[in-house]
Amino acid sequence: xxxxxxxxxxxxxxxGQCTDPAVLLxxxxxxxxxxxxxxxxxxxxxxPPLMLLASRxxxxxxxxxxxxxxxxxxxxxxxxxxxxxxxGGDPHLASYALVRRALVTFYDGDAAATTGLAxxxxxxxxxxxxxxxxxAQREAQGYALAGDExxxxxxxxxxxxxxxxxxxxxxxxxxPVLGTTHLTDPAAMVxxxxxxxxxxxxxxxxxxxxxxxxxxxxxxxxxTRYGFRRALAHAAAGDLEYSCTLARELLDVNTAVPSATVxxxxxRLAGELGRYRTHRAVRDLQPAFAWALRPAHI
Length: 298
Fold this sequence. Notes:
The chain has helices spanning 2-16, 21-41, 47-67, 71-87, 93-107, 111-122, 129-146, 149-168, 186-197, 201-212, 220-236, 240-256, 262-273, 280-292. It is 74% helix and 0% strand.
């Protein structure tokens, strides 16, 4: 049974890459509750792995809740994931939950809270290297938001070393991987992300262009997230035509796979390009931007 449920979770995560999160969310909530209900009916040997799977369902449900625009529900599901993981014998998801909370504060523009939560997460000396890498990566994003380049680069170097260690120690029996699985080199991609926030858009664009090539075609949500940051970097670097070309395709994808978090960069891109409203390519994109940034209830 755990193997079939793990397959179901993997399928749900794939759906999350190409489906409106608001549509997927009720299904994920029902799946999580169903797995929890199975625990009481299972034999003692199967209970811990079922609890761990339920925790992963709850964690992913929290992520989709945030993508659907509800940070409150996202944090509540993440808290449930921690309790389920602890019941299943995994003490480390609590640290990962801090990384998830730091994502909420990051998109709220709170650099201090982001770095504080991420640093707290990686303070556990027994933390698995992947979670340590994810925490260092989020900390770097917080430092970039604050304009602290030296601290940002130090955190990114720690993230690189941690991800390398995680790759060496990878256990195929360890269960679903936490965090994105669609980036060839997460630390490199986030370096490009951070360079934009640090005021180096041309360098950011070069890194993001290179790393974007490694994102699988089916990972629409991931491609949209980093694609808009890439278009934003090109716009800030003065590459207006290319930025508009990238944005046009991404805005079409965003209509099918909306994202509350990606809206942050769509809004920033619209503002950056809006400085050149008389440019034909920019002017032609204005209706698409208006549709993408319409109030959620419309």
